Amino acid sequence: MNRYLLLFIFFALSLAVSGNDINIGVYRGHNIYHIDFSYNKGSYMIYGDSVSYGALLPNEYISVIKKGDKVELRKGVNHLGLFDQVRLIPTAKNHIIRLRPRSPIVRERKYNDAFSVFSGEKGLTIVNKVSYNNYLGGVVESEGGGGKHIEYYKAQAVISRTYALKYLNRHKAEGFNLCDQVHCQAYHNKLIYTDDIRKAVKATEGIYIEDTVKNQLVEGFFHANCGGQTSSSDYVWRENIPYLQPFKDTFCIYTRQAKWEKRIPKVAWRKFLINNYFYPIEDSAYRAVIYRFTQQDRKAFYLSPRLGIPLRDLRYHFKLKSTFFSCYPEGQYVVLKGRGFGHGVGLCQEGAMNMASKGLTYQQILSFYFEGIAFKHYFEKLFFNQKPYDVVDF
Questions:
Q1: Taking each helix axis from N to C terminus, what angle separates 349-357 and 150-166, rounded to the nearest 10 degrees?
Q2: 343 DSSP assignment
Q3: Which residues form the Sporulation stage II protein D amidase enhancer LytB N-terminal domain (predicted)?
Q4: With contact defined as beta carbons under 8 Å apart, do 88 and 115 qualify?
Q5: ∠ at Cα 256 (255, 259), nearest 5°?
Q6: Alpha helices in 55-203 (DSSP H)
Q7: pLDDT above 80 (res 381)
Q8: Could you give the maximum distance between any two Cα atoms of the chain, in Å?
Q9: Which of 106, 152, 241, 330 sits most deeply, having the most CB atoms within 10 A of its CB?
């Protein structure tokens, strides 16, 4: 193929990649029935279905209210009509819009790019049609916070991009690709505070990771702190994934969330085990150890696999920071001394932050936490006509 034609194709595909949008359902943890949109920066046009209602100007706001299977649009106090869908479309490059739920009242947020609002099963469905880079900037800041090394932000950007690509059609039936909750990825605002995140997202634009055995997008799991040892995926989700095996991680053991302690009444502990798992309390041997458990290395079950008590169930019921704990009785309580925060599978965020501060690159960080991976680019998928995701259109 002609060299200039190849260059042209690469340039065109690069533009296509950078221009891709993704639709994110926001405020999904709340049933919103009334929300206001107000001007913050740039310029937005207002549409009720296909009819334009002019621009959203400084000091103006619009209200969108659920009315059965329609939505009511108001501009200030003026009723503009009932519609299937209300849209806000930016007409300038640098644009920010403020969202303020009124029923129920929830903390306001700011986002970039376009919005669509329509009636859902429970309240309004509020969708942010956002560029991939703007989305990832908001995700990385929501998940990782500010003040970290840029190589950590690069690692988080790549893993967040990979996770999004893997699950991009999770909510397609609801009219968007992903939601703003942690089971997709936290996305609670536009990127606000940390310019290094914007730089990290741009520097890794289009890059994601695949496993080298099946050539599939990896399960891009991450958590706050593994407590010194990552967890096997089958301990958490009953699925063994070869590149997510447990291993020792010394990079996080002296960080903020490496250790924790909790006291639980013996009565509550005992009741949970007996009522839910028929713990053999009449057996003197088991009665003697009901409050005593030691984990030097991560385990999947409490005391013994034969009892069938998954540690993940104890974690969820008692709201523990992790399943990586040992316990002993003290007075009327069971004292739990634990390590780590989160499920422990995949990237340990505090470990990755420490690795970055010691001079390791994002490629080294991700290769440490995900065994047998390859770094790929959108271009390879597009060049071979294998578009890696399906974006829902407004």
A1: 140
A2: -
A3: 121-208
A4: yes
A5: 90
A6: 132-144, 150-166, 195-203
A7: no
A8: 81
A9: 152
Beta strand pairing call for 114-119 and 85-90: antiparallel
- Strands (E) across the chain are located at 21-26, 34-41, 44-48, 51-56, 61-67, 70-75, 78-83, 85-90, 96-103, 109-111, 114-119, 124-131, 178-179, 207-211, 222-223, 259-265, 325-330, 333-339, 347-348, 373-377
pLDDT in tens, 190-222: 988 889 999 999 999 999 999 999 999 999 899
Cis peptide before 242 (omega within 30 of 0): no
Decide the pairing of beta strands 178-179 and 21-26. parallel
pLDDT at residue 182, rounded to an integer: 87
d(CA 350, CA 387): 33
Confidence at residue 389, expressed as pLDDT on a 0 to 100 scale: 45
What pLDDT score was predicted for residue 192?
84
Under a CB-based contact definition with an 8 Å cutoff, are residues 175 and 346 in contact? no
Residue found by looking up tokens 């997202």 in the block: 201
Residue 385's pLDDT band, with cuts at 50, 70 and 90, is very low
Phi, psi of 312 (to 5 degrees): -65, -30
Read off the pLDDT of each residue in 263-288 and give the average, rounded to a whole number.
96
Q: How much of the chain is helix, strand and coil, in % rounded to 5?
A: 30, 30, 40
- 């099963």: which residue's tokens? 121
> For the whole prediction, is pTM greater than 0.70?
yes
Residue 11 structure tokens: 């340039």
For residues 128-166, b (16+ Cβ closer than 10 Å) or e, as one string? bbbbbbbbbbbbbbbbbeeebbbbbbbbbbbbbbbbbbb
Residues 6+ apart with CB under 8 A from 23: 116, 127, 128, 129, 130, 175, 176, 177, 178, 391, 392, 394
Tokens of 259: 């250790």
pLDDT above 70 for 383: no
Q: What is the DSSP string of 277-304?
A: H---TTSHHHHHHTT-B--SS--SBSS-
Beta strand 333-339 pairing with 124-131: unpaired
Structure token digits, residue 386 = 């294998």
